[in-house]
Every structure is written in C-alpha cells, then in structure tokens.
Amino acid sequence: MHYLKVVFVRLLPHKIVTQLIIKVVRYALNRLVEDKGDEVGLSMLLVDFQNAFNMVDREIMLREVCTHCPAISRWVEFCYSSPAHLYYGELCLWSCQGFQQGDPLGPLLFALVLHPLVCKIRDSFDLTLQAWYLDDGTIVGNTLVVGKVLELLTRDGPRSGLHLNIGKTEIFWPSEDPRSRLSGVFPSAIARPLRGVKVLGGPVSVCPVFSSDLVVSRMTRTIELMDSIAMIDDPQSELLLIRACTGISKLYFALRTCSPAVFESARLTFDTSLRSHLERIVTVSGPGFGDWQWRVATLPFSFSGLGVYAAGDVLHYAFLASRLQSAELLATLLRSSGIVARGSSSEVALRGCIEATGSDYLRNPSEIAAPRLMRKLADIYFTRFVADAESVFSLTPRHVTLWRSQQGGHASDWLRAVPISGLGQTMNGRSYRCVLSYRLGIPLFSVPGPCSACSRVFKGDIYGDHAVSCTSVVGIKHRHNLVRDTLLDICFRSGISAGREVDIGLIDVLDRSLHPADVLLYSLDRGRDVCVDLTGSSPLTPSGLADFAPGRVVADAAQRKCAKY
C-alpha cells in the first residue's frame, strides 16, 4: 500500500508544491473511479476533522517535533510550550491548543501530529489508496476495511486533538457497495453523495453532468468577478486585472486538473463573456471589434496579442501538459492498485492536442519530461494559428503588417505596466482605447476629417495614422524628449560621458547652422565623439498609406539624415 509522501524542497516555492500535491491526488482518484468505478466492493472515504488546526494537542505536537525536526524544536517550544494570552475586551483567555493564526510553521506542525496516525493506518490495513493533504484525507479500499479505518480515526484521533466531523465526512463510490449500508460499518449520519464528490476543490466522478456543474459554478463566479471590475471604469486597470487575476488565471488550476470534455459547455459561456468585456474595454461596446480583433486580443504578447487567454485555447494543452508532467508521481501513487497512470481522458486530450497543434511533439518521451511543457505546447499551438491566420481571415496588407510589427521585442511592454500615476504609468481612458484600437486595426473615424492640430486632411486616414506623428501636437515633442532623456540616463548609469542638445558646429549647403545633436557621446568610438539623432516618423503620406511595409519608414528616415549630415 502506498500513500502520498511529499518532501518540501527549498528550491520549490510552497505554492508550486501545494498545487503538485493537489493535482496528483485528484488525478489518482479520477483514475481509480474511471478504471474501477464499476467494481462493487470498494468505497472512498473523505475525512473531515472538526476545527483541525485549533484543536491539536500541543504536548503531542512538541514531542513529534523533537523526534522528527530537532533543528527547530527549541524554537517551537519557545512559541508553544506556554499558553498564550488572548485578550477579548476586558477578558483574558488562555490559548492552550492548536496553532497560532498565521504561523508559517502551522502546516508542518499539523502534518507531524497527523503522521503517526497515517502510519498506523498504513501498517494496519491493506488499502488501495491513502492520500492526505493536511487535514483533508482520502482513503480508498474494500468497504469493510475502510469502515475499520474510520473506527480507528474516531478512536485514536482525539488523543492528538483530531476530532472527526461526521456530518462533513463522506463515503462514495460510483457503484455503491450494499455492505456500506449495513449496521455498524459506517455511522448513520455520514454523507453519501450519489453522483460524485468534491475533493481538494475539484470533481471526482464518472458522471459528466456532476463534473460539469462544478466547473460551471466556478466559471460563473469568475464571470461575476469580471463584471465587478467593469465598475472601475478604467480600461487600463481593467485589462491588467483581467489578464492577471480575474480572467482565465482564476481557472488555470481547474483547466489543468479537469478533462477538457468537462469544459465543453462552460468554455462557450466564459469566452462569450470575455469577448464582451474586451469589446467594452477597447471600443466601449461600439463597432469594429470583429472576429479578427477578438482572435488577436486573445493571443500571447509574443504573438502580438493583449496577453488575455480564451478558455477555448487553453483547453487544448493545459490538462494534457499537467497530466503528462505528473505521470511519474501518479504512477507511483497508483502502483498498488494495478492501474496505469494514463487513462482514456489522457488519450482523448492527447489526440485533441495533436490535432489542434498539427505536431507530433508529444510522441517524443524526452520532450514530455522537459520543463515548462505547458508553455512549449502553447507556443506550438499559437504558432500554428499564426501560420494559418491569413488563410482563415480576410486580412488587408495593413492588418497583416500591423499585426506582425507588434511581434518585435518590447513591443508589448506598455501593456504590462502597472498603472501608477506617480511614476507616469497611467493613461486616460480615451487615449488607452485609441492605442488599443490602433493596435488591433479598428478604425477610429467613420470618415476622414481635418486634423485638429494642423488642419491637414489625409485621404483615407480612418485609423488615425496622422495623429501618431503630427508635428503640431505637443505630445510628439514630449515623446521625443522622453526617449532622449532616457538614453542620457542609461549612459550616465553606464559610466558613458554624454551631453544633451550639443552644438557641434555643422552647417548645411547654405551656410546655415544645423540643429544641435540630441545626444553627443564623448570619446565613444576609439576616441571619437558619436552623434545620436532621434526622429519620429510615420508611414502616412498626403495620399494615404502608399507602402505599408515594416522597416520602410525607418530606412527612409535614416537615409535622409545621412544625406543631411
């Protein structure tokens, strides 16, 4: 009999270790019910202790710490050997049991108290599976044996301060064993769910409706959270929050631990809501946000997207990557049950991923064992989309060039900025929406009109290209000076001597003095001074966008500067 044993390694963050434990336990339980759910005679016991962390006996805890963790025993004795004073108004209470709230050692100390009980169960009974995550225990085996385990927990648990909460303890198996209803096997008050159970935040069941209902419930709460942040009425903050903590990031764990088939109905609801929120952020729910804009917005930054992921995309690789990378640990946990780690759900997910990516990448075992498998699968998946995009969507040369130009390095850094007004990292809502619309190829004007700054009219300029480089707008001068000052600051921090707006004594063919150099780097190139000139240009011409090709404007501007100087 094997039970899950986890070692906390210093190199692994606590959150990663926690997620690994929960994922493997969930995978193991779902594989058991998937493979042996039709067998009558097995039962799954979900243990729930009453107020577990606050009821632990401190004397037993101190003894276990001295035995297993002597290096920290003196510190733990200092913290817990004497009762703590708790003041409630004028009353003084004594804290004699459990752990102090917020104690980072709490999980470790609780595990040490529980460990002797877990070992006794392991040595006394022949079980199919025993897995514990702190006070959440899951025990699978012969129904009568599981009943004996419950008796042991009821009898020996209180000696350590662990009292069973029978009302929340559950017994379940897809094909219920009639013996579980016999008198004396299980308490009459124990819960007996029929379709499935919720273990460590996720479904364990062979009933797709039960699993789907749990996923829909979580998806609904995520949508409600996105609806709440809409009240901020700040597109920059809203997009950051949707990308970081209120969108698909709230569902990543569920996507990694539940089969893609469970999400079929929920993903459409989520993606429809996400599209509505993005459309409101970019265009205030106005026209222009079509299928192409939705597709680009839900691409990663490296593919010129907004870094907001759709559930329909993540489903293709999240579950499979997580299952494959935990296969070795899962196989160890299921060894005594005779069940192989990869089941039908994994095979279906594998076929779906290969079909979506068009790649046999996962057929190589060495690639499966590689780190960051989920990121690699995501890159393969979105790379295929990039290759097929022009044939799937009716794109103009402008859309293609604008999209590909955003794939360059640091082109999306401004989207990652946290809005902090004191650091100049905020944009007003109208400006932010205009930049997003320009990036996604959404027209800003229904008909071309005169520029409010210089009164010039540019034919076909419905996208606002002229506004980017209009020399009559104060903003372009500010951008020029910001880049110049940033370059000077970099030189200063790097120990390079540099000057700003330096008159270098150059004249043109008419003997007129040329403008001072924006930045002069002294003795940079083998003792010679280097002039740096900063220029902002646009591909727009009075007759429209004559040649919307990447790099064309930069090359032309450089050629003009070389001829001038």
From TrEMBL:
> Which superkingdom does the taxonomy of this entry point to?
Eukaryota
- InterPro entries assigned to the protein according to its UniProt record, in alphabetical order: RT_dom
The record ties this protein, via Pfam families, to: RVT_1
Q: Where do the Reverse transcriptase domain residues begin and end?
A: 1-187
Q: Which PANTHER family match?
A: PROTEIN, PUTATIVE-RELATED
What's the protein name?
A: Reverse transcriptase domain-containing protein
Question: From which organism does this entry originate?
Answer: Saponaria officinalis
